[in-house]
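Hi,

I'm pasting everything inline rather than attaching a file, because the server keeps stripping attachments. The sequence lines come first, and each chain or strand is labelled.
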Amino acid sequence: MKWFNKGFTGLVLLFLYIPMIVLAVASFNTGTSVSSFQGFTLEQYGELFRDGTLLPLLANSLIVAVLSSLCATVLGTAAAMGIHAMGQRSRRLVMTMTNIPMTNPEIVTGVSLALLFAFIGTLMKVNDILGFTTLLIAHITFNLPYVILSVTPKLSQMDPNLREAALDLGCTPFQAFYKVVIHEILPGIISGALMAFTMSLDDFVISYFVYGPRFVTLPVEIYNYTKKPLHPKIYALFTLLFLVILLVMVAMNLLQARDEKHKAAAKRALRGGRRSVQV
Amino acid sequence: MRRSTWLSGPYILWMAIFTIIPLGVVVWFAFTDGAGHFTLDNVLRLGDYLPIFLRSVWMALAAALICLVIGYPAAYYIAGRSPMAQRFLYMLIMLPMCMSFLLRTLAWVALLEDTGIINGFLEALGFTPLHLIRNDGAVILGMVYNYLPYMILPLYTVLLKIDPRLIEAAQDLGCTGAQVFQKVTLPLSVPGIVSGFTMVFVPAISTFYISQKLGSTSSILIGDVIESQFKGAYNFNLGAAMSLGLMVIVFVCTAVMHRFTGDEEVVTL
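And the predicted assembly:
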């Protein structure tokens, strides 16, 4: 059974990675078709950096991802602290609202925002309201729940006495926040921000409904491209992005593993200490 | 700490303006015509699209079911590894989710095409090429491929939380391996099954890219129709009515699924 499970999981991983391998191989192809490999070349990588049509689009995606995840992190962390201080009933109400963008299909979120902007556009008599601002607003909106859902659990895990102690020792509420509270909830803030950043960077569906022709992000342009034949340099970009994300993930894993090892060692030391006292 | 509730004020205002009001605007568009007068035409026209709605529901259900069947053993295997191996496998499952799903779906086109990679292999081995793309099966394959991680990760989270002592107790009381699974592990993993199912079903039923690339012209889904109302036909009112219909379906389906589990047991990533 164990042997079967191992092989099966291997097959699942293979299934998940085959298309990515196909794209990586295509990035070294001299021909333009993904289906047939004609010869090895690094030309696509040179082309990617030389002609500069894709990199500005990637920069646009990065700008939106950084700004929206930053705004969502600040707004969301503040909100999480407010929600934490709320009574049961209003907390439940706010959390229901937080869950709306998470449970609604993306296309509905995209359409509803597009209609809102169209509505505002007719009120303000602006024809081309869609652009950078609408894109940023949409991204902040779908990023906020990720931040809140990863910060609120950290706040409930925190010992409330810590903040009380800081206040008793003469901290202003603001000092208590940046000297005590933020250290306790930082892992939640960071993972929320990272999640928001990745969601925003790779978002296509919602962006597709609220982008304007003056500010296009990479996923949207890939979609617009696919109506015509794709230029292979896009596979080169995909492969490079894959390597970057892989490196970031491995680094995060190693850091996390080291952290847990430290914690486990501390715990063991503590337990050992207690046992010797008992003896 | 009671006074700091004001901190969530800006957030509540933001969500009200950009989540609640837009849904109101969708309803408003769904019940008006191009000139802004009240009409039921858009909602009544949804009846014409009933076959498309039904096809979307069954394809998304099929995809979610296949994901469950494939994902459960994988999640079970991962949850039983050492912490280091678990972290590594978790990362491997998560990584594809960070890469462009548009390009990954295109890679499937290259694999499945009549002159594609799989058929190339088949021909080289002396088999006759198969017709693999532009049918419902290919669309379901695309859904399973894209959303499988959304099934595996919540299942893994739930399986990891099961107290191993419960399994030992069942074994001590004379359960066979299959009985342990049926009486202990499976019931305890229901919350993970429900949230995994929802997380596959919702994006699958509303997709339009996967069906455009892998499906035939006769296998269009609700998402395709909505997209074409906004990007091709420019009939915002009908598009809004269809979005409303989609929302209702998703709401009903998730409500039914959550009947199997308590409210507070919902698992997320």
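Residues 46-265 of chain B form a domain with the MetI-like fold fold (CATH 1.10.3720.10).

If the labels don't parse on your end, tell me and I'll reformat.
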